[in-house]
Amino acid sequence: MNLYLVRHGVSTANQAKRLQGQWDTDLAPEGVRQAGATGRFLAHYFAGLRESPVALYTSDLKRARQTAETIGRYLNLAPITNPGLREMHAGRAEGMTSEEWERAFPGLAAGWRETHNLEWGWPDGETRRQLVERATQTIDAIVDLHRIAQHVVVVTHGGVIRAYLDHAVTRTPELADADVRASNCSFHHIQFSPQGKALGAGCLIMLNRTAHLADPAGADTPDATGQLV
Q1: Dihedrals φ, ψ of 99, to 5°?
Q2: What does residue 199 show for φ and ψ, rounded to 5 degrees?
Q3: pLDDT at 47 (0 to 100)
Q4: Does residue 204 contact residue 169 with C-beta atoms inside 8 Å?
Q5: Rounded to an integer, what distance in angstroms lies between the CA atom of residue 30 and that of residue 134?
Q6: What is the set of active-site residues?
Q7: How far apart are CA 109 and CA 131, in angstroms?
């Protein structure tokens, strides 16, 4: 089973450099273009494999949902919303610039920079541990539901992708030391090997792929074996 995690396109808040969390913002025009390029690429990719994804899931926040709706038009799939795929809840800091929330909440930035501190959290928001647990439970449930399928696409947020990849998957050797990054409309490929009736651990095969965004026509295509050319 192959899982593809896609981050939403650039939003209006991304452009304004404001912390979003679960603040519900729209895609910016650039994000709309990115979503189209991603949808075109994925349609070419699955056509090269001669296989189609069986489901397309999305966070219910607008920036992710709008991205998924665009991708879905290329894949002939209606997105299935799942609030468990929402970004980390940033509480009272949502909507602020980094300068604003650092000024409003002295001392918070030190914990923000301690990326391995799972007990750190936003004021009246989530902790990192809560995000990891929610992201892992939500994505694992999707994978388990489609264990006999070949391909499933999930549109979500950078924090969810990083939490899941850092805590719930193994790495191919070439990605063993790579930092998990999730650029807008990047996609990440995780492969699960069946072991009896249960799926084995997911293995990260592709990280933060954004090459498809460089071509406004989404011209990257796979050959008949599914390799990108």
Answers
A1: -65, -40
A2: -80, 145
A3: 97
A4: yes
A5: 29
A6: 8, 87
A7: 18
pLDDT digits (tens, 9 = 90+) for 114-156: 989 999 999 999 999 999 999 999 999 999 999 888 999 999 9
Residue 184: closest CA among 155, 206, 164: 155
* Strand ranges inside the chain, DSSP E: 2-7, 55-58, 80-81, 151-156, 169-171, 187-195, 198-209
The dihedrals phi and psi of 208, each to the nearest 5 degrees, come to 55, 50
Alpha carbon of 226 to those of 49, 141, 194, 229: distances in Å?
A: 5, 27, 20, 9
- Token match 């026509």: residue? 217
At residue 217, the pLDDT reads 52
Band of residue 224 on the pLDDT scale cut at 50, 70, 90: very low
**Mean residue pLDDT across the chain:** 90
Tokens of 42: 């994925």
Identify which of 171, 204, 167, 207 has the alpha carbon closest to the alpha carbon of residue 187.
207
| 8 A C-beta contact, residue 138 and residue 85 | yes
Q: Are 202 and 143 in contact (CB under 8 A)?
A: yes
- Domains annotated for the chain, with CATH where assigned, are 2-99+132-214 (3.40.50.1240)
Residue 222 has pLDDT above 90, yes or no: no
Q: d(Cα 65, Cα 154) in Å, to the nearest integer? A: 11
18-37 pLDDT tens trace: 999 999 999 999 999 999 99
Burial of 166 (0-12, 13-18, 19+ CB in 10 A): middle
In angstroms, what CA-CA distances link 54 with 40, 42, 43, 67? 17, 13, 13, 18
